[in-house]
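In the previous chapter we treated chains in isolation. Here, by contrast, the input contains two separate entities that must be folded as one system, with a combined length of 659 residues.
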Amino acid sequence: MSYCVNCGVELDESAKKCALCDTPVINPKKPVSEEQTPFSKIEHIPASLNHRFIAYIISVALFIPNIVCFLSNAVFRSGGFWSLYVNATSFLVWVLLVFPFFTKKLRPYLMWFVDTIGVAFYVYFFFVLGFEKENSGWYYNCALPIILTASFLILIFMLWLKRKNRHWVLKSTAVMIIIAVLSLVSGCVIEYAASIPHAFDVAVIIFVSCFIAIVFLIYCYRSKHMRRWLERKFFI
Amino acid sequence: MKNNGLDWFRLDNAAKIFPGQNSRSWSNVFRLAAELKEEVDPVTLEKALNNILKRFPSFDVRIRRGFFWYYLEKNPDKAKVTPDIKNYCYRVKFKENDGFLFRVYFHSKRIAIDSYHVVTDGYGCTVFLSTLIGEYLRLKEKKISYGEFVLNPGDLPSKQETEDAYPRFADSKVKYDRKDKFVYHAVGTRLPMYMCNYTVGIMSFEQIHKITKGYGVTVTEFFAAMLLDIHYRKQLSEKKKQKEVSVQIPVNLRKFFPTKTLRNFVLCLRVKINPNMGEYTFEELLKIVSYQLRLANDKREVNSMMTQNLKIERNPIARALPLFVKNIGVSLAFFFTGEQTTSALISNIGVVKLPEEFYKYVEKFMFFTGPGIVNAARCGVITLGDKLVFSFSDRYEESDIEREFFTRLVKMGIHVKIESNRE
C-alpha cells in the first residue's frame, strides 16, 4: 500500500498520483498496478450532449441552401453575383456560431484567431467583391487596420482576464479603454486613409467621453470614501 | 388490473418536483454500489435483476406524461446490466435504457445502481441493491437467508411497499415557515457538463464513532459540522461579502412514521450559520449543528414541513394547470429554493444491516449523491460492518474541499483510504 506524503491518506494500488493533491506516487517496492482500477475508465457521453453532431447537422443545413444559391447564380448570371451575399453571411454565421462546437473544449485563442480571419474575409467578400469591385483600396487602408486593431485589443483583454478574476468595475474600465483606443484608431484611419472629413473629431469626442468614464470608474474602485458616498446617495 | 393492482402509480409527493427539473445540467440521479469479494458475473447479475424486479413493482416502471401530471407505468421490457462507466449519475432520459429509471452496472467486483430519485430514495435503493446481491449470490449457489435489508424475491410485494407515505402521515395543523436565503457556494473550474469527479474515503466506523462520541454528537452531525466549517473558512479566505453557509441533510422519515414504503420518504433539513455574526470555532459549530439538527429533526417539525409540501400539491389551482405550465413553475421554484439555498449536501444512509452470511461475500457499500449544479461538495455516507464510506460528488476540477476534509480526519488519527475517478 502507498500513502500520500502530503495528505497522509492511503492510496489505491492503481493510483499514479494522490487524488487530493496531485502528488505523484513513487514507491519502488510497490509499483503502480493498473490492472484493477476502482473506477471504470469508460467515459459515456450522453447523446444529447454531442455538440459536434449538432454542429455537423447545422453545417449541412447551412451548406445546402448556399450551394443551391451558388449554382442558381452560376446559371442565371443576369443579376450579378447576388449569391455572394448569402454565401458570405452564412460563412460568418458558421465561423462565429457553429465552429466553436467542433472543438472538444472551449479554446478562446483559437476562436479569437478564426473569428478575426472570418470577419476580415466577410468584409472583403461582402463589400469589396459585392459592392465596390473597382475600388478595393479602402479595404486594405481602412477596414483591415480597424479589424486588426479591434482584434488585437480583444486579445490583450482576454490575456488580462485570464491572469486572475477581476472586479466588475475593472472589467467595465477595460471595456471603456478598448472603446476609447478603437475610436481613436478608427478616427485616424477613416480621416487620413479614406479621406472622410471630421471623422477624427468624432473619434476625439468618443475618446474624451470614455476617458471621463474611465477616470470616474478607477476613482470609484480605489476610493472607499467615494464608494460609501455613492452607496449612501443611491441606495435602493 | 394486472400485477396485483400495481401497474401504474402516481408520483409520490417528493418525486413530483424531479421530472420538471430534469435537464442537461441537473437530474437527480444517485448511485449505490456494493463491492463483493469476487469478480461479478454479468450474465448471472442480469438474471438476478430480472428475477427480483417483480418483487419491486415500483422499480419496474417507466415514466409517462399525463395531461396534468407525470405517472409511472409497468415497464414491459427486460432490464439489462452494462459495464460501468467513469461519469456515472448522468441525467436520465425517459426514453433511453428501455424506459427504466435506474441503470445497473458492473465493474470488476462491483455492482452499482444509478437510480433516478423519482423511483426511490437512498433507503429504498439500499433494499433493492441488497436484494439484488442476495439473488445474485443465490444463483451462484451460495447459502443465504433473507431478512434485514434483503427481501425474498419469491414473496408478493405488499401494498405498503409501493405507497406514497406522505399523505398518510402528513396531518399537522401548523403552517411551516420556510425562509431560505441565497447562500455561499465554493465554486471552481467547471468540468464538462457530463463529467463529475468522485472521491471516496474509506475509514473505520469504530474510529469515527469514538471521536464523535467524545464530542457528544452523531456521525451525521460531525460530518455536517466539518463541511460547514470548511465552507465557512473558505469563504473567509476569499475576502468577499460574507453570505450564509448552509448544509442540507436529508432525513429518513421512516424512523418517525411506520411504513414499509420503498418509494421516496425523505425530507431535507438545513443547518446554517451567518459568518457576519462573528467568528466560530469548530467546537462551536459542532454544538450549533447538533442543536439545530436536533430541533428540526423532530416528528412534529417534519410533519408540519411534510404537510406544507402536500398543500402545494393539493392546491386546486396548481392541480388544474397543464403539465408544461407546472414544469415551468417547478423550474422557477427550484431556482429559488434548490441549490442556491445550500452550500453543501450530506446524505447519510446509516448502517446497512444484512444477514450474517452476506459479510463473507460483500466487502463494502458505497453511496454517491450525484453531481449538483453549483455545489462542490455533495456527500454520501454509508456503513457496512466497520467500513464507513464517505463520498464526494464534485462538478469542479479543484479538490481542495475533499483534501481539507480528509486531511482533517487524518490529523484526528483516523486511517483514510482514498479512491477516485480523477486521473
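Chain A touches chain B at residues 4, 7-12, 15-16, 18-21, 36, 38-46, 48-49, 105 (CB under 8 Å). The longest strand of chain A covers residues 2-3. Compare these points with the single-chain example from earlier in the chapter.
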